[in-house]
Design goal:
The protein is an alpha/beta fold. Helix 1 packs across helix 3.
């Protein structure tokens, strides 16, 4: 039980959960609730650990359906004296791979690079070959047809092509925008980036009430 050693009442924990789900920063929550900031930080960390565990366990089976795949970069926009180039080359930015299940969930994973030898095993491990897969024209997605993904369709962003009827990656790109906007509120995340990434994955496209109910259930609060 995540909160078995809690020293404050369930009522106050639920108040903390409410502020967390509304996405109020820990310092402001501490001020509003009259609780020590270190205590709020501790609970926020407990929440993120529970969410991380839930999100990680939820993706044990391959996804089947219409699936969008893409990668994005997080962190400083450039290194002084080094030109920023496409796909994060020449930067210290952190690459992240994402899989978006249309009308469903999103999965993310921190990766060392966006080469084909890195991306292909991830796709094969998370996406059923029977799925319809959409990606952009990045060469890291070359050859998916050769390993069984015969319904792989692409949009070529270099030619200002962003959608051809159902062929697009608007869903995963919307998630990246949401995640970057949210993390910008905290001036970027330098510590526990993996926890914050999974938190964004969990928060995506849910109402505050839905988040509250899910978190309370995870924490076994009644």
């Amino acid at each position: 039980m995540w909160l078995s050693k809690a020293k404050i009442s369930d009522y106050r924990i639920k108040k903390i959960i409410r502020h967390y789900c509304v996405d109020v920063e820990a310092s402001k929550t501490a001020l509003l609730l009259g609780i020590n900031r270190n205590t709020i930080n501790r609970y926020y960390n407990i929440f993120r650990q529970a969410i991380y565990e839930k999100q990680t366990n939820e993706w044990k089976l391959s996804m089947l359906g219409e699936i969008e795949v893409d990668e994005s970069y997080f962190g400083p926009k450039r290194v002084k004296g080094v030109a920023v180039t496409k796909r994060g080359r020449g930067t210290h930015r952190q690459p992240v791979f994402g899989v978006f299940e249309r009308n469903g969930r999103v999965y993310t994973e921190i990766i060392p690079d966006c080469k084909r030898k890195t991306l292909r095993p991830l796709i094969m491990g998370k996406v059923s070959p029977e799925s319809v897969v959409y990606s952009d024209g990045w060469r890291g997605y070359d050859g998916l047809v050769d390993v069984g993904y015969d319904k792989h369709f692409r949009v070529n962003h270099r030619n200002n092509e962003f959608a051809k009827n159902r062929i697009h990656i608007n869903g995963i790109e919307s998630f990246w925008s949401f995640t970057k906007r949210r993390l910008a509120k905290f001036n970027g995340i330098k510590i526990n980036f993996d926890l914050h990434l999974k938190e964004c994955e969990w928060r995506w496209d849910k109402t505050v009430n839905e988040l509250e109910k899910e978190l309370a259930k995870m924490l076994k609060l009644h």
